[in-house]
Amino acid sequence: MKDILKAPFLIEMADTAANMYRLGWDERNGGNISCLLDETEVGEYLDLGCVIREIPLGFDGAELAGRIFIVTGTGKYFKNVKADPETNLGIIRISKDGSKAELLWGYKDGGKFTSELPAHLMSHKARLSVDVDHKVVVHSHPTYTLAMNRVHVLEERAFTRSLWQTCSECIIVFPDGIGVLPWMVCGTNEIGEATAKQMLNHRLVIWGIHGIYGTGNSLDEAFGLIETVEKAAQLYMLTAHMPIINTIKDEELKALAETFGVNYRKDYLDV
Ligand code: 13P
Ligand code: ZN
Questions:
Q1: Can you list the residues of the chain whose pLDDT is less than 50?
Q2: For the chain, what is the radius of gyration of the CA atoms?
Q3: How does DSSP classify residue 31?
Q4: Cβ(156) to ligand 1 under 6 A?
């Protein structure tokens, strides 16, 4: 067996958590990450027949039965992941009947997966149904995105337009726009179901006055989506209280999207 601490998927996960902490997006235990892993790759590092313990999921994960994920632990601080991955992360396999997580590695102190696992797994399921290459769900509390939540209408078309108008890269990076949920109680199956519904049409979903979800085929993609939203939200908040005399007009957004060949939400533009 190879050394799991040297597995590229584990190192990338720890590096991402460290970056998110460094950027101030994930105070204390804020935020969580889950990545779908390839069984053959995990088998190079772990005996897949050896289950450390079983943890009830509390919702039906049957459609993801047998799938293996690396997931941040609940209550764990992102700043600590890199120094002690085995306590702060876990590798779980969804049981055949979809009712349990089989712990294959990690959560060394007796811990368990993030309280947001319902939203993560339901989002994985939704994204896989529209993109077979989907792998990653990232949840975070980025500062300017949350500040913008306090002053901007929480509606997906309006929110997306404000971000697209703020800097040129936005419509190219997230032409599918950003889904928006109202404030809801977090950690529940209900918010998971609402998130997954939005995930059928978007790779990004705002949880009103809480945070953001980004998804993708890699950690880079999911992280990059959130990073781009956060940059635009920062620009928005730095200028929202001043008279806005320049913006990117709808015809210009259309020209950008067409030049870069992205499949953008045409109904989000008035052209
Ligand atoms: P966990 O510590 O359970 O991952 O929760 C953090 C969080 O961001 C809740 O939304
Ligand atoms: Zn959160």
A1: none
A2: 19
A3: -
A4: no
Q: What is the DSSP letter of 6?
A: G
- Helix, strand, or coil here: 211? strand
- The C-alpha atoms of residue 235 and residue 91 are separated, in whole angstroms, by 38
pLDDT of residue 236: 98
- Least distant ligand from the CA of 31: 1
Q: What letter represents residue 4's amino acid?
A: I
Please list the active-site residues: 116
pLDDT of residue 271: 95
Ligand nearest to the CA of 210: 2
The pLDDT score that the predictor gives to residue 196 is 98
**Nearest-CA neighbor of 165 among 147, 148, 146, 140?**
148
Give the distance (Å) from ligand 1 centre to CA of residue 233. 22
**DSSP codes of every residue in 37-75:** E-HHHHHTTS-TT---EEEE-SS--GGGTT-EEEEEBTT
Tens-digit pLDDT profile for residues 80-127: 999 999 999 999 999 999 999 999 999 999 999 999 999 999 999 999
The letter for the amino acid at 239 is T
Ligand 2 centroid from CA 141, angstroms: 6
User: From CA 125, how far away is CA 247, in angstroms rounded?
Assistant: 37
The DSSP annotation for 108-161 comes to TTS--B-TTHHHHHHHHHHHHHH-TT--EEEEE--HHHHHHHHHS---HHHHHH
pLDDT given at position 257: 98
* For the CA of 210, the nearest atom of ligand 1: 10
Please state the pTM of the whole predicted model: 0.98
Residue 50's pLDDT is 98
Q: Edge-to-edge strand order for the sheet containing 32-37?
A: 53-56, 100-106, 89-94, 68-72, 32-37, 136-140, 211-216, 204-207, 179-181
- What's the pLDDT score for residue 181? 98
